[in-house]
Amino acid sequence: MLLQQILIQTLNGVVTGMILALVASGLTLIFGIMDVVNFAHGEFFMLGAYVGVLTMAATGNFWLALMAASLIVALLGAVIYLVTLRPLLGRDPLNTILATFGISLVLQNYALWQFGPVARKIAEPFTGQFTLFYLVYPWYRVLIALLSAAIIGGFWLFLKYGKFGIWIRATTQDRTMAEAMGIPVPWVLTGVFAIGSGMAAASGVLFGPLVGVNHAMGLDWILQAFIVVVVGGMGSLGGCIAASIFISLLEAYATLWVSPSQSIIFASVVLILTLLFRPTGLFVPTPK
Amino acid sequence: MKDRATLVFWCAFVAVVALLAAAPLVLPEFWRRFLTEILIWGLLAMSSDILIGYTGLVSFGHSAFFGLGMYGAAAALLLVAPPNLWFAILLGLVAAACVGAFVAYFATRLRDIYFAITTLIFSQIFYVIIFTWTDLTGGENGLTFDRPRLAIPGLFSMRFTSTTLHWFVLAVVAVSYLVLRRITQAPFGMVLQSIRENEARTRAIGYPVERYKIVAVMISGLFAGLAGVLYAVQNEFAAPDFVFFLVSGEVVIFNVIGGIGTLVGPIVGAAFYLLLREGLSRFLTEYYLIPVGLIFIAMVIFMPQGLLGFLRRPLNR
Amino acid sequence: MSAPADSEILVKVEGIHTYYGKSHILHGVSLEVGRGEVVGLLGRNGVGKTTTLKAIMGLVPPREGSVSLEGQPITRLPAHRVARLGIGYVPEDRRIFRLLTVAENLRTGLDRAGVDRARKAELLDKVYAFFPVLAERRSQAGGTLSGGEQQMLAIARAMMLEPKIMLLDEPTEGLMPRMVSQIGAIIGVLREAGVAVLLVEQNVPLTLESCRRVYFIEKGMVRHHAMASEIRVDDAVVHQYLGI
Predict the structure, then answer these.
(1) Neighbours of A130 (CB within 10 A)
(2) Number of residue pairs across A and B with CB atoms under 8 Å?
(3) Which of the residue ranges A202-211, B83-92, B153-162 would you say has the lowest mean pLDDT?
(4) Cβ-contact B234, B165 below 8 angstroms
(5) Is pLDDT at B246 greater than 60 in this prediction?
(6) Which of B43, B45, B49 has its CA nearest to residue B260?
């Protein structure tokens, strides 16, 4: 019995971990390239889920919903960046934290106003479960994990091989020299912010069918995402993925003993330990 | 020169306090309570300014100090009958001090953004503990209790009216301001500011930077806890909502709107935000926080020094 | 003394003032570099040599004064536009992209509009032929290269922009003497290819050997200007501005 529960929680942990990885990678990417801590990232997740709801209601097609959410929110992210964050780039990082906090407030209340406090639902694209040994597990959850992995994988390839990938990596390492090499840094920054937002939106749509979609759903995720980004190493994509799965597994196992809302304490403990002993990140080699 | 500046300061101080003391005599009940609440949130924001404005540490953990002060007071008011004001203050401050020590120990080794995130996570940890430990804290519903009397044993005992409570709060906040101001002007405060300007250099000169930061966090936490006690006394309840990290975010908003590094700025910031919110909520009942948020963002971009930013130099001479 | 004729001026800097916060760094620097000319900028540490290059490059926008390239004003244009207009910048400390491979470092300069695949391949071949050590290490991360190799990569990377002028900031700093003469050879090759060079240095012999004209800068202003052939290493003017 316990073994079955542990297996289920392992699967749950991996699934949630992949979604968290998708959300957090956008955050860590944005932080790595422009030192901006995007408090509003959870709201992009939430808005993605809502766009998903609306698209599903209009077309009934999950894949269309996924694409629409990613593109629309990416565009929104780009606009928000250009209007509010670009003017703040040279200044004290406190300013961007505050501005993104303000943006998060505005977006949350906008969603509350437009959609009301009652949660909406996105229907799962596949129903049905599969049996593994004596365990029954829903297909849809497996799909989420695979899709998230695919998106992250695709993005990793893009970073490694494409022209824009090199631009992004160069700008992240040395913004000044990237500019001196003719890379249009302002556009790269806008693009990265848009991509990060789009990824958060995609996770929102993927996660939507698991729970209800409501205006406050971003809050939980932003806290977890922050923990992941710090534990995984700010700016490190690989660390972020490893940390996401690690923390999600930890929390999943924790739910066997404590209530779900308390499982964040476990993640927090990991955060504290990381900050005390390996502040650059658990999964990042300590710099010499 | 210095004497003249001091004279100007004291005149202004007395004038403002007198104005605030006279206000409840002319305001209707609702606004009387509102003004008192502004002072309480102002005290909370002011405590946060010690960290943000003077030490250069952005803390999102003040909701924890505030909340624990509130619950500490609640505990005192529920445990002892008849409810005793001074015991409530004591217990609230002790609770806040404990949280302060805890946060200080872990968080002060960290710089900038890591400090901010860690304090935020700590707020949430406390939130979760309070929210789920229903037996002790009433969980989601919080705790309700009676307001204590203003009493000095042997001398007098009287119920608070909204006006006398306002005066009590005003007295506490005014004294707190003077105390905090004294601290910032003392050598200790100078070192804090030096840490804000250039931590590495301060450390190189030989100051034990970590210890100063820990003390700063504890002072900040104490006054935040005091604000929590006042809130409990005024509103007669304690709820986990106040420990949620969004409250910390609002406190930082008050600081920035009002002007960091001025001590009074945050109080003005709190007033501005709360009045704006109150005013807009009457016209736009559903989505009033949206324009509030937009105004805040605009201020961060165009007026980062805050409303009272121009007073920063003169006040810190 | 023959400064270049107006039609031959490539880069003209006139009276630029820059500030760093409240500090006034450049107090009206003026200089010129002709087409294909190698010009030196000599001075002690902290006098504004690097800032001058950065002002030309658009990394530090001057508050007053102007910079023009082939007669077109480029003052305060963002650096990525300046780079594409044909100015290659090789900073102090090289600042190659440590986590990118040598090939990827070169690509940052290659990947621009108007360059087709054939031309890119051609440029790469040329640079690998000229810097065989870079060819060897093309798949290695930039951070694993030695100091001298990184300097070569920094120069090669800027050359990928096919610039009309290269701004070199103390390229010999921290290099062994053997490498210093290699830098001299590279500057010679650039000159032969018709690429102008503005060389900021503290190494006087190399500068006098490679450059046609030399400016001396002190406390944020150009104080002296001469043909390199008229100056010797032990001249009083050298002592005065470089304190050697």
Answers:
(1) 10
(2) 101
(3) B153-162
(4) yes
(5) yes
(6) B49
Does A178 sit within 8 Å of C108, measured CB to CB?
A: yes
C132: closest CA of chain A, how far (Å)? 22
Residue A63, min C-alpha distance to chain B (Å): 32
Token code pair at residue A157: 């390839």
* pLDDT confidence band for C239 (50 / 70 / 90): confident
Look at the block and give the residue holding tokens 């639902």.
Answer: A121
Q: Which of B116, B132, B297 sits opposite A259 (nearest CB)?
A: B132
Q: Which residues of A touch C84 (CB under 8 A)?
A: 182
pLDDT at A287 over 60: no
**How buried is B153 (Cβ within 10 angstroms: 0-12 exposed, 13-18 middle, 19+ buried)?**
exposed
* pLDDT, mean of residues C57-65: 92
Mean pLDDT score, C172-196 = 90
Residue whose C-alpha is closest to residue A39's, from A81, A89, A96, A91: A96
Burial A86-96 (b: 16+ CB within 10 A, else e): eebeeeeebbb
Domains of chain B: 2-245 (1.10.3470)
What does the buried/exposed string (b/e) look like for A232-259 if buried means 16 or more CB atoms within 10 Å of the residue's CB?
bbbbbbebbbbbbbbbbbbbbbbbeeee
Percent pLDDT > 70 in chain A is 94
Distance from CA of A150 to the nearest CA of B (A): 30
Contact B288, B277 (CB under 8 A): yes
Chains that touch C (3 or more CB pairs under 8 A): A
How many DSSP H helices and E strands does chain C contain? 9, 10
Q: Does B165 have pLDDT greater than 50?
A: yes
Q: Please report, for residues A42, A213, B216, B258, C128, the alpha-carbon distance to residue C197 in angstroms, rounded to integers and kept in the order given.
A: 50, 61, 54, 52, 21
Q: Can you tell me which residue has the tokens 């991996």?
A: A14
Q: What is the set of domains in chain A, with CATH numbers?
A: 2-277 (1.10.3470)
> In a mutagenesis test of the A interface, which of B124, B210, B260, B277 is the best target, namely the one with the most A β-carbons within 10 Å?
B124
Cβ atoms of B39 and B201 within 8 Å: the answer is: no
Identify the weakest region by mean pLDDT among A161-170, B130-139, C30-39.
B130-139
The residues on C that touch A, with CB distances below 8 Å, are: 57, 59, 78-80, 83-84, 89, 91, 95-100, 104, 107-109, 111-112, 157-158, 161
Find the mean pLDDT for residues C12-19.
Answer: 92
Best residue in A177, A284, A288 for a mutation probing chain C (most C CBs within 10 Å): A177
pLDDT one-digit tens code per residue, A90-114? 787 778 888 898 899 899 989 988 8
**Measured between alpha carbons, how far is A66 from A43 in angstroms, rounded to an integer?**
16
Instruction: Tell which residue, C3, C41, C91, has the closest CA to residue C204.
Output: C41
Residue B159: the pLDDT is: 77
pLDDT at A288 over 50: no
Distance between A181 CA and the closest CA of chain C, angstroms: 6
pTM summary value: 0.87
pLDDT tops 90 at residue A237: no
pLDDT band at C31 (very low <50, low <70, confident <90, very high): very high
User: Could you tell me if B283 and B155 are in contact, meaning their C-beta atoms sit under 8 angstroms apart?
Assistant: no
Residue A129 pLDDT: 65
Tokens of B179: 């105390």
Q: A180 vs C109: CB contact, 8 Å cut-off?
A: no
| Interface with B, mutate which of A36, A43, A101 (most B CBs under 10 A) | A101
Least confident residue range of B190-194, C49-53, C229-233: C229-233
Phi, psi of B142 (to 5 degrees): 75, -165
Beta carbons of B155 and B163 less than 8 angstroms apart: no
